[in-house]
Amino acid sequence: MGLGGATMDERVPRDFETLRATILERRQSLPKRIAQIAAYALDNPDDIAFGTAASIAASAGVQPSTLIRFAQQLGFDGFTSLQQVFRERLRERNSSYDERLAALRAKAEEGAGHRAIFDGFVAAASTSLSDISRTLNEPHFEEAIALLAKAETIYVLAKRRSYPVASYIAYALGKLKIRNQLIESAAGLNAEMVAFATPSDAVIAISFSPYAPATIEETRAISEQGVPIVAITDSSFSPLAQFAKVWFEVAEADFGGFRSLSATMALAMALTVAVGEKRRDTGRKRKA
Predict the structure, then answer these.
(1) 196-216: per-residue pLDDT in tens?
(2) Where is the signal peptide (predicted)?
(3) Using CA atoms, how far apart are residues 156 and 180, in angstroms rounded to an integer?
(4) 131, 266 in Cβ contact below 8 A?
């Protein structure tokens, strides 16, 4: 019998969402190597579903025995039992876009020409958009809008692959006449720009694996100043998540190893426009 009269079997996560929530709840207390495989599992659920213990361990950079310890830490009798949860997740998903993307990859590899590459990226973008539409946490979305709408200045922070999204947010906020600051400086004055932020402001920080070190360090610095952060990232184990008051997990599909930014851009556009609407509504109520 387990704690409170429950058997071990009764406390084992039986679906992916419960498993994910359990991992998140325990992540701070997990031993280093088990936390490493836990992060890999949440980032690469399809690999966990289909891989062998040896291949998964090699990809995650741990020993195969760590997979067994990871499974047992969550209450499973072994890794195979844990793997069934990941396989069930795939069975429950609408796989039409995934199947189409796989077919397009095969077509491109067979020499179907440049149109197949275009179709591949369109299918990847469609997959990303479908996934975020299905998984968006609406209470978090509303909380992020409220947080950003009351900010005096919205700072926008991203580097490398995420930079186009940050650039769009800054552009759109400017068009909406919302004071903002894109944290970038050819003169290397990012730290000075970050130092101006106060708790009455807010930050939108964006980064995906492999996370840009500068983004992480600047986010850390700005969080230490008490500035609330809205993060857009790709994993609950992302360094950004620990600094954020509200964060969004965006899983972008890829084609040929090139990841789409479609879902991220859709979320960024929705946040920006919704913040503008929220501020206008607040202004009208004050005048009434």
Answers:
(1) 999 999 999 999 887 888 899
(2) none
(3) 7
(4) no
Check residues 198 and 13 and name the one with the higher pLDDT.
198
Contact 155, 181 (CB under 8 A): yes
Full residue range of the structural domain in which residue 88 is found: 16-94
Distance in angstroms (rounded) separating the CA atoms of residues 253 and 273: 25
Does residue 261 sit in helix, strand or coil? Answer: coil
Cis link prior to 213 (omega < 30° from 0)?
no
Q: Which of 33, 68, 94 is the last residue of a domain?
A: 94
Q: Which of 92, 88, 68 shows the shortest CA–CA distance to 79? A: 68
State the Cα–Cα distance between residues 165 and 230, nearest whole angstrom.
14
List the structure tokens of 153: 């200045």
Q: Are 240 and 164 contained in the same domain?
A: yes
Beta strand ranges found along 91-217 (DSSP E): 154-158, 180-182, 202-206
Q: How many domains does the chain have?
A: 2
- Whether residue 38 sits in one domain with residue 150: no
Determine, yes or no, domain membership for 106: no
- For the chain, give the number of residues: 288
CATH number of the domain to which 149 belongs? 3.40.50.10490
Tokens of 109: 């590899």
Is residue 96 exposed (0-12), middle (13-18) or buried (19+ Cβ within 10 Å)?
exposed
CATH assignment of the domain containing 65 = 1.10.10.10
Q: What percent of the chain has pLDDT over 70?
A: 89
Question: Per residue in 200-231, is it b (16+ CB within 10 Å) or e — as a string?
Answer: ebbbbbbbbeebbeebbebbebbbeeebbbbb
Q: What is the pLDDT of residues 133-176, one digit of tens each?
A: 988 999 999 999 999 999 999 999 999 989 999 999 999 999 99
